[in-house]
């Protein structure tokens, strides 16, 4: 089995939809990844942004893994960091090094763009993700808070 990683671009609308379907299945979260799907023009604009990094792992013309990351420019120094937001591999292809391959490619992109770090969060209830990220980086204990948007009065 040959699996290759590639970065999606503006012409990869169908592949982006396939990646979102993979996320919906892997995270058991159809509400987020399938409920309000954006139109093709919106996806093409997002796929064309340098700061939006979408990588897929493909074999036989099929997407079997992928990741979504965002480059975040910093203001305390002339540098950026990259936030690995989503990472999933299809069940039959897990434990084959695909997630590590995708992260490795993201680290190369980080080096190419001059980013000083790639960071990722993992849920305590996800031991495989914790093991993967522990193997690849330095673990920090942090708290994560979701703050809702507020309308102006």
What does this structure look like?
By secondary structure, the chain is an alpha+beta fold. The chain has a five-stranded mixed β-sheet with strand order 1-2-3-4-5, with helices on both faces. Strand 2 and strand 3 form a beta hairpin. The protein is globular, with a radius of gyration of 16 Å. About 35% of the residues lie in helices and about 25% in strands.
Which key terms come to mind for this protein?
single chain, 153 residues, alpha+beta, globular
Task: Summarize this structure briefly.
With 153 residues, this protein is α+β, with helices and mostly antiparallel strands.
List the helices and strands and how they pair.
Layout: E1 4-7, H1 13-26, H2 30-34, H3 40-47, E2 52-59, E3 62-73, E4 80-89, H4 98-113, E5 117-120, H5 127-136
What is the helix tally?
5
Helical content (DSSP H or I, runs of 4+): 25-40%
**Hey, roughly how much beta strand do the residues contain?**
15-25%
Secondary-structure element pattern, one letter each:
EHHHEEEHEH
